[in-house]
Amino acid sequence: MKLLTQIKMLALMAGAMMTTDAGAVITPNKVSSGDLLISKVFYAASKKAAGSGNYVAGQYVELYNNRDEAVEVQGLYLALLESESAASAYTQAAIEENADLKAALGGKIVVKQIFQIPDDQTYTIEAGKSMIICNSATDHTAGAVTGHDLSGADFEVKTTNTNYPHNDAVPAMKLIYTMTPTLDFMNLSYTGTGSASVMLLKNNAAAVVTAEESLVYGRGKTTGNKFALVNPYYAIDAVEILGNVKNKGVDATMKRLGDTYDQGYASTTAEGGYNGETVYRKTAFVTPAGRRVLYDTNNSTVDFQSSTTIQPRAYDEELAGVTEQEVTIPESGFLVFCPEKSCFGESAISFNYITTNAKNTNLTYNIYGGTDELLAKSVFILTGQPGTYKVYYSEAQPSKKIPSNALTWSEVDALEFSGGQKSRVIYKWVCTPEKVGFERVAKTTEGLYNKATFSGDDRLYLYLTTAMVDAFSAENGAASAEEFTFIKWCGPMPEPTAVQTVKTAANSQSATFYTLDGQQVRMLMPGKIYISRQADGTATKFYSK
Predict the structure, then answer these.
(1) How far apart are CA 14 and CA 334, in angstroms?
(2) Which residues have a Cβ under 8 Å from the Cβ of 127 and sit 6 or more positions away?
């Protein structure tokens, strides 16, 4: 692990947009992820505690805040995917086989019911806490073999079905759409070849499509029940849950959600319904502060397991294990960080990386809060105020895989791309009081590839294709890609830890600003360092934003 060259006296607000000399940008991006999770679904129901028969009133869905700060949830939509049997027209396989249907749906997901958390006031889920939505917010422990006490639930669906007793003290969920008026409760499928899949969507009217002309008939017919649509662009989280059918098992071809939303599926371990199993997310790790972080790998086969004993708001203690390491951020506020495995850190530090997108002709600067994520192994720039911090490694799968990180770290003194790498362009990290960012490395005489010579701790670089560089330079007005020479860093930098004083020439004019070589200026250019003259003849060096 290497330290970067110190930055002397730079102060830049976190997330400010900076341009290159040629006008190109690194776009700041506070990465938003599925921090609010569908963490538990008790859909399989149970057998009655006394006599024969099934007990379904105790079904519920639990949401969990995986972040380290409170999350507001008012107005969020909870949608239940259509749950027809093998004749369903809306599985991924069926949609792919029907080009007209695929075009008509336009990527939208078919759902049988849509509920909404009330938006009459602010509702929050605290960090590491849960919210329970159920059909009957009462104590079901006496009536069912596997019953849960839901009297402390957060929201209740106020159904007209008398099989679901109400708790007047618990706020009502809004029913936005249901496939038939008699189903005004959460119709979580408990058995069969159907789906108990659930999707959580943002508070945006465009997230749901309930207009009559856009509804679709069940099983692809032209009569009967109609289903609504949701736009997965607004999805916060989605969980594919398939039935474990007696004598048949789980049929993965019945998946409704593509890999973009869930690469796998959850299910009960026992065949058939009414088995009292709850599917719930596994624990990835517990932070030193005691906050539980649940698995979120976008694959419910990995993230979920089932239990007949797990209780509402409770999760397992099967931790993947956490080890601790100290890291020291120097006065520069930067540290090149190459974790050995999945990791997270303290809240006072951030993990930063750059992604590239030639199509959008930009470089995107990404920031992950120290405790927000379980990060994959990659190359990061760790930022924060100078000091010593703790970083924690976990054997758990990362909850966030870093896509297309353009940052690379070299362990050798010279790096030369040849052969199949002739199309690559290197931008080498520079970190001085006058210049902070990535500067293009000149071509070698042997060909079109580049050679970067490193010394000390300056082995960090961007590794771009010529197509990317051409797109960036053309979009930003450079005469050629050769003029796309410098990309200024964007993001959090430390405030000065001390005042630098410099003697300056007497100033008889009203302006009191000087360049580093002592030349007086009347207009400050952004991204430059100046000296501000003080009354005693000394000056403070500072960075102009």
Answers:
(1) 13
(2) 65, 67, 68, 69, 70, 291
- Say what the pLDDT of residue 247 is: 85
Exposure string for 403-416, b = 16+ CB within 10 A, e = fewer: eebbbebbeeeebe
User: For residue 144, what are its two tokens?
Assistant: 């069912």
Pairwise CA distance, residues 45 & 275, whole Å: 7
Amino acid of residue 236: I
Tell me what pLDDT residue 90 has.
95
Q: At CA 239, angle to CA 235 and CA 244, rounded to 5?
A: 155
- Residue 219, both tokens: 């099983």
Contact 235, 8 (CB under 8 A): no
**Four-CA torsion 341, 346, 347, 351, nearest 10 degrees:** -40
Contact in structure between 62 and 131 (CB atoms under 8 Å)? yes
Please give the model's pTM, rounded to 2 decimal places: 0.71
How deeply is 447 buried, as exposed, middle or buried, from its count of CB atoms within 10 A (0-12, 13-18, 19+)?
exposed
3-class secondary structure per residue, 14-44: CCCCEECCCCCEEEEEECCCCCEEEEEEECC
| CB 447, CB 491: distance < 8 Å | no
Q: Which amino acid is at 104?
A: A
Residue reference for tokens 């919210």: 131
Identify whether the C-beta of residue 519 lies closer than 8 Å to the C-beta of residue 42: no
pLDDT of residue 527: 55
Cα–Cα distance, 185 to 227 (Å, whole number): 16
One-letter identity of residue 265? Y
Which tokens is 334 given?
């930067």
CA–CA dist 170, 148 (Å, integer)? 16
Contact yes or no for 46/147 (Cβ under 8 A): yes
Greatest alpha-carbon pair distance for the chain in Å reads: 99
pLDDT digit string, tens, across residues 299-316 = 999 899 999 999 999 999
Helix %, strand %, coil % of the chain (to 5): 10, 35, 55
- Please state, in angstroms and rounded to a whole number, the distance separating the CA atoms of residues 237 and 283: 17
Q: Are strands 36-42 and 278-281 parallel, antiparallel or unpaired?
A: antiparallel
